[in-house]
Amino acid sequence: MIKHHPSDALLAQYCNASLPASISVAVAIHLDMCSCCKDKVQRIEAQNAVDVFAHHNEQLQTTDLAIDELSLLDAITADDSVDDVYKVTPQTILVNQQNYQLPRALARISHGKFMQMGKLSRSRIALDDGALRSSLLHIDAGGEIPEHTHTGFELTLLLDGEFSDEDDHYVPGDFMWLDGRHQHTPITEKGCLCYTVVSSALHFNKGLSKLLNPIGNLIY
Amino acid sequence: MMVSQQLSTRCEPNTGNYTAMPQTPSKELADALSAVAANRDKHAFAYLFAYFSPKIKRFGIKQFNSEAQAMELVQDTLTSVWRKAHLYNNDKGAATTWVYTVMRNASFDMLRKMKSNKEDNISEDIWPLVEQHDNADHEFSDHLENQQIKNYLDKLPQAQRDVVKGVYFQDMSQEQLADQLNIPIGTVKSRLRLALQKLRNEMGDRND
Questions:
Q1: Which part of the chain is the ChrR-like cupin domain (chain A) (predicted)?
Q2: In a mutagenesis test of the B interface, which of A52, A99, A169, A177 is the best target, namely the one with the most B β-carbons within 10 Å?
Q3: Which residues, including other chains, have CB under 8 Å from residue B27's CB and lie 6 or more apart?
Q4: For residues B45 and B15, what is the distance between their CA atoms, to the nearest angstrom?
Q5: Domain limits for position B54
Q6: What ipTM goes with this model?
Q7: Are B69 and B60 in contact (CB under 8 A)?
Q8: Contact, B77 vs B56, CB < 8 A?
Q9: In this complex, do A89 and B93 lie within 8 Å of one another by their Cβ atoms?
Q10: What is the tens place of the pLDDT at every residue in A172-188?
């Protein structure tokens, strides 16, 4: 069962489009996996609609429309065609001989080739999103990421498989937000595929792991 | 840009009701939207236009701090309402909520274009306007074994996609297609050229 969800504040920001694209994508993927959060979002959207569209006495009658408004109205209705229903075809990707179905929200956003380093593979999502970088991160069975902290933040959404860290065991749909206060060593027994958003390089803090800067760069 | 965030380890449904909209003509708006969807009813659309345009404009001015961009939002939103009214499902919520989601999506795409100069219009990937359902597009899939190509085609604007489908997958000549779509042959050619350019770019992107 999914135990880790976006906070209510984050859901509210998602609904009014004030989150960066890569984080919005993470929330969208979570919603397709979590009907409880999806219900919350529908409720927030309905409330937002009330706030924006409740009657404020400025409603025009059709006969009050100004010339430029009438011409916009005419321009819009001059073309009778309708937009196609937006179809999203499920996409399967192959990472290290394993097939995964991509979440709907990622099906039409392209991603780069997987780069591999040991048991880690990473593919960059083609979302130009300022300082934020989003990726598909795959860890083979038995793989782990050395203990690290985050100078910015790291959002991890488990898409498939499982992993654990010092705090918990995670299942697909779990939405984890870590920042500089957290330290962890994720480890996976059976392997996993995650969607990650990272705001700045990871910081490895233990012995030999300090030599692992390349991993930090790979993941970031 | 920052996001206030703390970990949430439970999903507790909010049980409180949202504020009702006593002054909103909910039924009239929903009926108008249905009339636009079913009959391309211009009077019904004029009613929606008069109801929503000042409210969208006010929202846009808050969002963009610019009257011109607010008007662009009015135009984008109401164009989508006109062209996508058939996607509104009466049983699933108020017409105002649907128009809100259409406006929010248009606003997101505009902001993204302004901030990072991206015209990828990914709002519908983030907030789909339709529930995902099984898509049996047989006419098409029989001819098209490569799922990838179909995905690329889906990214093309409707007009370009129609031309590519007609010429490459229904074996029509450009003249026949111009006839069928009732557009000049020059337009068929230019749409085809744009579409192929775009497809090449997309496919090239993936093979890096």
A1: 134-197
A2: A52
A3: none
A4: 35
A5: 26-126
A6: 0.87
A7: yes
A8: yes
A9: no
A10: 999 998 876 677 788 99
Assess whether B108 and B38 both reside in one domain.
yes
Any chain B CB within 8 A of the CB of A74? no
SS (H, E, C) A55-115: CCCCCCCHHHCCHHHHHHHHHHHHCCCCCCCCCCCCCEEEECCEEEECCHHHCCCCECCCE
Do B112 and B159 reside in the same domain of the chain? no
Please give, rounded to a whole number of angstroms, the shortest distance from the CA of B132 to a CA of chain A: 7
Which of these, A220, A202, A219, lies nearest to A150 by C-alpha position?
A: A202
Residue B17 in any domain: the answer is no
Average pLDDT, chain A: 85
Q: What pLDDT score was predicted for residue B184? A: 84
Give the torsion through C-alpha atoms of B86, B89, B93, B98, to 10 deg.
-20
Residues of chain B found within 8 Å of residue A89, distances taken between Cβ atoms: 135, 147, 150-151, 154
CA distances from B154 to A81, A131, B160, B192, B205 (A): 18, 29, 10, 15, 16
In this complex, do B96 and A87 lie within 8 Å of one another by their Cβ atoms? no
The residue type of A29 is: I
User: Which residues 6+ apart lie within 8 Å of A204 measured at CB?
Assistant: A146, A147, A148, A210, A212, A213, A215, A216
Domain shared by B142 and B70, yes or no? no
What would the two tokens of residue B128 be? Answer: 């789909």
Residue B137 has pLDDT above 50, yes or no: no
- Does CATH place domain A92-219 in 2.60.120.10? yes
Across the interface, of A4, A6, A109, the residue whose CB is closest to B122 is A109
How distant is the Cα of A112 from the closest Cα of chain B, in angstroms? 6
Tell me how crowded residue A191 is: count the other CB atoms within 10 A of its CB: 19
Q: Which residues of A touch B76 (CB under 8 A)?
A: none
d(CA A119, CA A210): 18
Query: Does the residue B1 lie in any domain?
Result: no
Evaluate if pTM is beyond 0.95.
no
Same domain, B30 and B106: yes
Q: Which residues contact A69 (CB under 8 A, 6 or more apart)?
A: A60, B49, B53
